[in-house]
Design brief:
With 352 residues, the chain is of the alpha/beta class. It is 34% helix and 20% strand. The structure holds zinc ion (ZN).
């Protein structure tokens, strides 16, 4: 989850507070918010080029593994959900959470296979999905002459992401002392999908443009019948839409419809295709359907209010999310209902 909108107010506070914010939300997002603070004119000083202090909450967080089905497992920890596919050729890892949790995540993968970690796929550039890239990659080894044809390091897993993820992560890292080139994707794709045949299974990495950000990938394990969505689908909150990084409510709905196209339920019961959301519990088609409907209804309400000429303040006042707030809303934390409504509004308002 990224947290741009919460930043500008905090930017005005003392540097000690800034340090705390860096711990909480990650330096990349803070730097980003500084560049594009809302409200106009409140441009804060550049981020200090300091090494990110380790976050004990992430280091101490529990990490555990759940078998999904087929060859696919889900590792739950302090960051976004990690999906792991294992087999004779090794492990493929979708999203790497925070670096503080990397040793625990590698230990969980080791319980599933003694074979090397060959691939990492990032569903977005967000720190809670990419921060462990370097450590987890170093725990693996790339496929020499694999069908991606790219071997970036001698001793690391190949890190795959949509091209914009590399751009966003490189920009965020610029001028920072904690820049770790080993965290960056080593193989990128531009559009459509990237196909990887691994462990006797087609793994389809699908670009979903302008959704949570403009660098989102979903990963479909075609034989295991499991899809990892990244933050396009989030069981802990309304979808996080980072408009400043190219996100848009329309792209989120489009991507949720892609998930619904792929998923097939088992007849009259739970199961069938499993869906690993960016955050929160394991789900299936039914959960995605309800989420898609909820997000679509809110989008339509905001769209109608914009047509009536309502301002952002008036839209917020009208509470277009009202009956969903008990389940999905929040007044505190990194992604509040207010921020979601604003992101929907900005998605539907032509850029000036
Ligand atoms: Zn996330």
């Amino acid at each position: 989850m990224t947290t741009c909108k919460a930043m500008p107010r905090i930017m005005l506070a003392a540097s000690a507070v800034l340090a705390a914010v860096l711990i909480l939300f990650g330096s990349a997002d803070v730097a980003h918010a500084q560049g594009k603070g809302k409200g106009g004119g409140k441009q804060a000083a550049p981020a200090p080029a300091a090494i990110r202090p380790p976050n004990p909450a992430w280091a101490n967080a529990e990490v555990h593994t759940l078998k999904v089905q087929g060859n696919v497992y889900m590792i739950v920890g302090p960051g976004g959900n990690t999906a792991v596919q294992v087999g004779d050729s090794g492990a493929l890892v979708v999203d790497t959470q925070y670096e503080e949790a990397s040793d625990k995540i590698v230990a969980e993968i080791r319980k599933l296979t003694s074979k090397p970690i060959r691939y990492i796929i990032n569903t977005s550039a967000d720190m809670d999905h990419t921060d462990g890239n370097a450590k987890i990659s170093r725990a693996g080894a790339p496929v020499i002459g694999g069908n991606l044809g790219a071997v970036a390091f001698e001793n690391g897993a190949t890190i795959v992401a949509q091209e914009n993820v590399l751009r966003m992560m490189s920009e965020a890292a610029e001028g920072k002392a904690d820049t770790n080139a080993d965290k960056l994707p080593t193989t990128t794709y531009f559009q459509g999908q990237k196909e990887i045949f691994f462990n006797e299974e087609p793994v389809i990495v699908m670009f979903e443009p302008a959704a949570h950000t403009n660098g989102d990938s979903m990963v479909f394990f075609r034989r295991s019948d499991v899809i990892a969505t990244g933050d396009i689908f989030n069981m802990d909150s309304y979808p996080v839409i980072n408009v400043d990084k190219g996100g848009n409510i329309q792209g989120v709905i489009k991507a949720l419809n892609v998930v619904l196209d792929i998923t097939i339920p088992k007849h009259e019961q739970e199961g069938g295709t499993y869906v690993i959301p960016g955050h929160g519990r394991l789900t299936d088609e039914h959960d995605v359907l309800e989420y898609r409907d909820m997000v679509t209804i809110i989008r339509d309400r905001v769209q109608n209010m914009i047509k009536q000429g309502k301002t952002l303040a008036q839209v917020k006042e009208a509470k277009p999310t009202f009956e969903y707030d008990g389940r999905w809303g929040s007044t505190t934390g990194p992604w509040t209902t207010d921020m979601f409504v604003e992101a929907v509004f900005r998605s539907l308002t032509p850029k000036k």
